[in-house]
Amino acid sequence: MGAFVISRRFNDEYKFTFTSRKGKVIFTSLSYELRFECEEDIQRFKVNIDLSKFLKFKGSGGKYFFKLMLGDVHFATSRKYTTELLLQKGIKEIVTYASKSEILDFSSNEAIFEDEEVVEDEIEME
Q1: Beta-carbon neighbour count of residue 29 at 10 Å?
Q2: 50 phi and psi, to 5 degrees?
Q3: For site-directed labelling of 81, which of 58, 60, 61, 103 has its Cα 20 to 30 A away?
Q4: How far apart are CA 78 and CA 92, in angstroms?
Q5: Of the candidates 43, 78, 50, which has an alpha carbon nearest to the alpha carbon of residue 63?
Q6: Is residue 126 scored above 70 in pLDDT?
Q7: 41-72 per-position pLDDT tens digit
Q8: What's the mean pLDDT when you consider all of the chain?
Q9: Which of 114, 111, 107, 94 is nearest to 3 (CA)?
Q10: What is the three-class DSSP state of 122?
């Protein structure tokens, strides 16, 4: 099952990505000023996934991508795919798993994992 991952952009705005079961990013949302706006849009998408449209494009470099539309509003843009078949698999992953995917919030500045030095110091003390 995939997951929605909330994080921050370099300009301190929020975004979320939808990742596949294997951990690959499938699409990235637009920017949000507030974190709760991300959560609201994720919930809105999960409930209204049947209203989604996938506009498929081929970029100038020959790679494929899609724009995810929720109603008439541009909601997110996919990563680049090397083939149209892989693009279609990405869309299928969204349709199949997005409505039941969990939300992970990595937007805080707190360290998720301990510093490597701290762990090494603890190992040396033992």
Answers
A1: 22
A2: -70, -15
A3: 103
A4: 13
A5: 78
A6: no
A7: 999 999 999 889 999 999 989 999 999 998 88
A8: 86
A9: 94
A10: helix
Number of domains into which the chain is organized: 1
**Domain span at 26:** 3-125
CATH number of the domain residue 25 falls in = 2.30.29.80
69-92 pLDDT tens trace: 988 889 899 999 999 999 999 999
Residue 10's DSSP bridge partners are none
What CA–CA distance (Å, rounded) separates 123 from 126?
5
Residue with tokens 């996934």: 49
Got the DSSP string for 19-59?
E-TTS-EEEEE--BSSHHHHHHHHHHHHHTGGGEEEEEEE-
Q: Is the overall model pTM greater than 0.70, yes or no? A: yes
Share of the chain above pLDDT 70, in %: 86
